[in-house]
Specification:
Elements: H1 8-22, H2 29-36, H3 50-73, H4 78-95, H5 97-102, H6 112-130, H7 136-158, H8 167-183
Helix pairs in contact: 1-3, 3-4, 3-6, 4-6, 4-7, 6-7, 7-8
Length: 189
């Protein structure tokens, strides 16, 4: 299986699948080499090292997540867009736990691909905020609130809430609360 048709893209996709199976933090060059039935040195003509591999997986995951969120939000505004946005994040985290974990990777701002993938998420959040008519000076605060609330819930759910009863109701009520807050955003000061 020498070479096995290896490319950087094929390795990245395989590493993303591996992340979903065993956890992002356990993705290594040697684990990936085993998956392809090749020796580690065979991979180094396509990737530099484990950090490069993980950055590629994070960039892929950020792109996939943004694509899914954008598709879910298409043609929606206000609460409908907020719910679509949040559900797309949650659904991605459930379907791809390793990749979702990879989205939390701090990426090199000098990397064009990584920067482009990461920049789409705040843009999508700002698209939600337009319907709520928040002043420009308040949008960063609202953006942080939305991301921290959604990320927090999804992370707690992935870790296994101690009280899983009523989980769907809590999710829906949390989104209702975010909508109400955004419609009644407190004035500064």
């Amino acid at each position: 299986m020498a070479g096995a048709g290896l490319t950087a893209e094929r390795l990245t996709r395989a590493a993303a699948e591996l992340a979903d199976e065993i956890g992002f933090e356990k993705v290594t060059v040697s684990a990936l080499a085993r998956r392809f039935g090749v020796r580690e040195p065979s991979l180094y003509s396509h990737i530099r090292n484990v950090q490069d591999l993980r950055t590629r997986v994070a960039t892929l995951a950020l792109t996939e997540l943004a694509d899914g969120v954008a598709a879910a939000m298409l043609g929606r505004a206000g609460k409908d867009a907020l719910v679509a946005f949040a559900n797309a994040y949650r659904d991605y985290a459930r379907a791809h736990p390793g990749r979702y974990s990879a989205t939390r990777t701090r990426l090199d701002p000098e990397s064009e691909a990584a920067a482009a993938a990461a920049s789409r998420h705040p843009e999508l959040t700002r698209a939600i905020l337009r319907a709520y008519d928040l002043p420009e000076s308040e949008q960063t605060h609202a953006l942080r609130l939305l991301h921290s609330t959604i990320y927090g819930f999804v992370s707690l759910e992935a870790d296994g809430f101690a009280h899983a009863r009523g989980l769907e109701e809590s999710w829906a009520r949390g989104l209702d609360a975010l909508d109400a807050l955004l419609r009644n955003w407190p004035s500064a000061g």
